[in-house]
Amino acid sequence: MASSKKIIIGSRGSDLALWQANFVKEKLEKSGKPTEIKIIKTQGDKIQNLSFEKLEGKGFFTKELEDALLNKDIDLAVHSCKDLPTENPKGLILAAVSLREDPCDLLIIRKEALDDKQKWKIKLKANVGTSSSRRKAQLLHFRPDLNTSDLRGNVPTRIEKLRNKQYDAIMLAAAGIERLELDLSDFIVTKLPAKEFVPAPAQGVLALQIRENDKNLHKHLKETFNYPEVMETTQIEREILKRFQGGCQMPLGIYCESETDEEDNILYNIWVSKANSWNSPVAPFFYQTPKPDKIYDKIIANINLKPTSVFITQNKRKEDYFVRTLNSLGYKTECQSLIEFRLIPFKISEPFEWVFFSSKHAVKYFFMQKPILSKEIKFGVIGLSTGVELRKYGYVPDFIGQSNNIDSISRQFSNLAGNKKVLFPHAKGSFKSVQQLMPKKDKVLNLTVYETIKYPDAVIPRCDLVIFTSPSNVEAYFEKTSFNDNKQRAVAMGDSTAKELLKHNIRAVAKPHTFDEIGLVRAVISI
């Protein structure tokens, strides 16, 4: 070691980097190891006039720290893991990681740029400051009307530039804001969900790098920073990044979470967002696997898209994310609902404490009849798009089920609702999947609010991939035509739709992981 008494920690000199170094220092000192922090300036700190994609090479926030480790000027380098190249220089290792702070990105908006009606609450054509090509690409992917401008400097400096009205909004990592405990009360802060706006690989995690032959320090760090789940999911993200041969200047988002199924098997959910450049189309992917090492080749292969023709059984809307995204990636899309909807008048005869909507149509036809609701009523929904529909009527969902696993959604919701009585507005002939899985049937109130009617004159185009959005659309489709060759494949929106397809001897090749348009896009391009 550089010192027989102290562990010398190397750190960049920014407020956030020093917070991170002091966090590690405090943990080590509590474990009985005296430490000292040494500030080292990196290339990324010295060059402030260029955006990240214009900086040459990799490791422009880490190389000088790694050199200091190899030269034995320091014993331990503390990095933001997202800045650390996926391959260590010879003689160095990633010894440990911290717990993961919130991995999400934040959109910090000046109040003058607020628009509640727009996605993320930011006005049309706003100017957003960020030098991250990943953030730029995804911002324009979801909101093509926005403008982006480069933004450099440490976190407080960036926020001060926003206060000085150089931008309408800026983007920062939630973890950095939380660690520095910065006051953002004069702004509107929108958190962008990591499963939608995919963060940088390992965002929110600290990486502790040491010399490979420093066995004693390695052993001590493994005991002090013992977070195997974080190390595992972080390494999955970094391995995918490595396969892309990318650095933090690449417009690539990767996020991994592990979960345990009902049989105690570990499943890894992996979200990927990839573009060729900050101003080129974004391809969003989703994968679920028990064996991540078996999925890497598929992820890389899928990035080389082979666009095909797609038919979806829903009408094209004015702002259609699904069509816009697939068309930008070279897919040919056709949209046509095979059914229409008709309101069924209702009367509510019993009191209830929750209302649960399984579709945006149930929301629409429930509120069209202007029901009288108490202010204490809570709302549950399946899917982000159903939540968006609910907000149109002035209500915010208290529960959002964001999985294609109805069993899981039902368990989560029933645990939340407890002994409260729940009203379920639904379509005539609905499978009532969630209601059937509720453990307390006496707490379930079913309410038919609309019915579906088949379009007799609907024209069905011939496409290689057909996305069925409901069991009724499956039924209407196969009354008019059939899958008569091996080229056609089906995607099913949920278990009920997949079961209806099986009646026609068609097995869905995919089901969206989430019941919304981004879930549909991911299902199409991740096949």
Quick summary of this structure?
This protein has 527 residues and is of the alpha/beta class. The protein has four domains: 7-99 and 205-225, Periplasmic binding protein-like II (D-Maltodextrin-Binding Protein, domain 2, 3-Layer(aba) Sandwich), CATH 3.40.190.10; 105-192, D-Maltodextrin-Binding Protein, domain 2 (3-Layer(aba) Sandwich); 309-338 and 455-525, 3-Layer(aba) Sandwich (Rossmann fold); 340-454, Rossmann fold, CATH 3.40.50.10090. Helices cover 30% and strands 24% of the residues.
Describe the protein.
The chain is of the alpha/beta class. The protein has four domains: about 5-100 and about 205-225, Periplasmic binding protein-like II (D-Maltodextrin-Binding Protein, domain 2, 3-Layer(aba) Sandwich); about 105-190, D-Maltodextrin-Binding Protein, domain 2 (3-Layer(aba) Sandwich), CATH 3.40.190.10; about 310-340 and about 455-525, Rossmann fold (3-Layer(aba) Sandwich); about 340-455, Rossmann fold (3-Layer(aba) Sandwich). About 30% of the residues lie in helices and about 25% in strands. The chain has helices at about 15-30, 45, 65-70, 135-140, 155-165, 175-180, 215-225, 230-245, 295-305, 320-330, 360-365, 385-390, 405-415, 435, 470-480, 495-500, 515-525, and strands spanning about 5-10, 35-40, 75-80, 90-95, 105-110, 125-130, 145-150, 170-175, 185-190, 205-210, 250-260, 265-275, 285-290, 310, 330-335, 340-345, 355, 380, 400, 420-425, 445-455, 465-470, 490. The protein has a six-stranded mixed beta sheet, with helices on both faces. It has a five-stranded mixed beta sheet with strand order 2-1-3-10-4, sandwiched between helices. A five-stranded mixed beta sheet has the order 7-6-8-5-9, sandwiched between helices. It is globular.
